Amino acid sequence: MLRAQIEFQKRYYQWSLQNWEKEIREDFQLLRTINSPMAQRPLRVMESLSTQDRHDMAITLVKRRTIPSVLDKFNESFSSQDKQRLEKFMQLWDEESVKEALNWSRYYATQKRTHRIKSKLTKAITSSLKQILGEEYEDWGGGEWRYRTDIGPWRVITHIDTSGQSCQLYYHHDICAAEHVYLSENISILNWLGISSETEWTRLSNSDIEPTSQALTTIIKYFMDAAPKLLEGLTPELIEKEVDYKAKQLNQ
Description:
Layout: H1 3-25, H2 37-47, H3 51-65, H4 68-72, H5 80-99, H6 101-109, H7 111-115, H8 118-133, E1 138-141, E2 144-151, E3 154-161, E4 167-178, E5 181-187, H9 189-192, E6 199-202, H10 209-231, H11 236-251
Antiparallel strand pairs: 1-2, 2-3, 3-4, 4-5, 4-6
Helix pairs in contact: 1-3, 2-5, 3-5, 8-10
């Protein structure tokens, strides 16, 4: 990993910890808006813990998502205590999965009906995101599109996907300077909380369209407001020069 990427990941790590503290303090305000098992299971797990255990578990989850070389910068590591906490988290996760079995069967019975909301959901999201990302976007067709937002020398690419059947909405951000020059990829709320590599919404019906589009807009705004500070002082040249230097070494 290049130095600029490590510096960004250091900031992202600290910001992620701060976000968990905020979520715990505000009764999981953002996590609660994501209608999917990947969000609702960890929400119920965290709610079952004491306040101190919630804070400890949050640190463990963010550490799990963070590469060792970044943790080293803070004299941290994924300790034996973290491993024990994660085992407990996964055990509670599995218990929540069993409880969801009936809900899943009800969902599959209505899947064809709920899948018809795609066009309505897409329209609601593009309308809601105008205030954050603007009106222009690249339409990839089939319910996939992306926005480009320039922040200094960096470009934040926001991907939205409503093309799925079981997963009716998916999003993430990439940060790049040019084609194939990426600072970070696959940024989303469940990623920065250390819960999952992806953030998705499922089991949506017509009544979920407006609250879902508003929830996505709120979450995207939250990251976009933080992005300038996360990127402050980082320049593409830090990556490009190091890539060139390593390429020259390989060619010697």
